[in-house]
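hey can u run this one w/ glutamine bound, need the C-alpha cells asap thx
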Amino acid sequence: MVGLSAEAQIAALRAGEVSSADLVEEQLARAADDPWGSFLRLDADGARARARAIDAAPERPPLAGIPIAVKDVLSTRDIETTCGSRILEGFRPVYTATSVARLEAAGAVVIGKTNMDEFAMGSSTENSAYQLTRNPWDADRVPGGSSGGSAACVAARQAPWSLGSDTGGSIRQPAALCGIVGMKPTYGAVSRYGLIAFASSLDQIGPFARTVRDAALLLSHLVGRDPLDSTSLEWPEPVRVPTAERLDGLRVGLVQELMGEGTEPGVREAVERAMGVVEDLGGTVVPISLPSSEQGLATYYVIAPAECSANLARFDGIRYGARVAAETLLEHYEGTRGALFGPEVKRRIMLGTFALASGYYDQYYGRAQRVRTLIVRDFREAFAQVDLVASPTSPTVAFRLGERTDDPYQMYLADICTIPVSLAGLPALSIPCGLADGLPVGLQLAGPAFSENRLLDAAHALEQAIGFDTLPPGVEG
Ligand code: GLN
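ok here u go:
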C-alpha cells in the first residue's frame, strides 16, 4: 500500500481492501525505518488511535483514514513542535494549525512531523538543529529545503503526501530535488494560523505529493478564508482534481533570464524537452523576459530577514520553549537567543535588524519594497502575453551534503528561480520533468493569482505525457 498514491489509497479504503488501521500501520513501519532522516518524530500512538476511530465511524469524510506527514513548522496540539530549532525544544502547542485541522476534519491521519531548516531558513535542511535529511535519490546529497523532510518522506514512500511551507521556494525546490510534485498556492490561499512565522508577507503552506492529482486533492481541502488569519482569502472556485490531457491554446512563456549560464546544462536540457512536450500537446512556447527578477534574490534577502527579525523577537526564552536561568537580562538573552538559535537564524536576525534600523530603513527595506513592486509588474506584463510562465525550479540538481554549508550566498542561489514568484505572491508548482546525471530535474510553472486550476490542469497533462517515474533507485515501491 505504501507505493500507492493517496488517491489510490482512498480507493482501496473505500473498496474495503484495507482498513485505515492497517494502512497507517504500514506507513508508520516505513516511516520508522528512516535512513533518510525525514522525520523528527512520529506520533504512532495518536495515529493508530485516530485510524481505529475512523474505521469504527459510520461516516466517511473524503480523506478518511489516509496518512499524512506534516512539516515541523506547523503547530500540532500536544505534539512537540520545534521548527527545527533548539529554542523550541519541548514546545507543545495548545492548538493545531488551521491547515492541519482542516485536513484532520476531512479524515486525514497525521503520522509525524518532518525535519526542516531551522525556522524554515535554508535550501538544504542542513540548518536543522537536530539531524540531517538525505535525498532518497542519492543519500550523499541534500533533499533541498527548507521542507526537506516533507519532500524526502514522500519520495521515499514513508507517506503518500505531506505539508510544507514555502517562503521563497521551500516547497518547490525540495520537490524538484526529490523528484516529486510540490505546490505553493497564491498568497492568502491557505490560512497561516498556527504556521510558525518566518516572513509573513511571503509564507504559504502547500502540498507535496507524487502526482499532480494528489497535490490538487490535498490543496482542495486547504484553501479558503479563516477568521483566524486576516490575510487568508475567500476562495473563488473549488480546486478541481485535474483530468486535462491536452494543452490546446495554452501559451507558455519560458523565462529567458533563468535559462542562462547559472543553470546547469542538464537542467536546461530537461526543461527544454518539457517545452517540446508542451508543443506536442497543442500549446505554444514563447520566450519571455522578467527583467526585474534578476534583483529578486537581493530583494528577498532584505525583506525576508527584515520580517524574520520582527517575527523571531518573540522567542525570548520567557514566553516560549527553552529557558536558561541567568542573573541579568543580557545573560538571559545570551543564554537563550545567543546559544539556542543557530548561525543562519542569527545571521538573518542581524541582517533584518540592520535593514530596518532608522536611518537605513528607506535605503534598504523601502527600496526592496519598491523593487518588489517592479517584480509584480514584470509578471503582470508577462501574463498579458502568456497564460503561464515556465522555468527550471532549481538551477541545479540536488547538491552534495556539506557542499554549500560554508557559503551562504551559494545556498541562497538555490532559490533564484522560485523567489520572484514568491515576491509577487503568485501560485506556482514544480513537477519532475526528467533526470540529469541520474538526479531529478524540476519544472516550475507559475500563473496569475487564483490560477491554481489552470496550473494544475497544465501540470497534469504534462506529467502524463512526460511519464516520469518518481521511485528513486533502491527505494522499495
Ligand atoms: N531558501 C530560502 C531561504 O532560506 C527560502 C526558504 C523558504 O521558502 N522557507 O529563505
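The chain has 15 helices and eleven strands. anyway lmk if its weird
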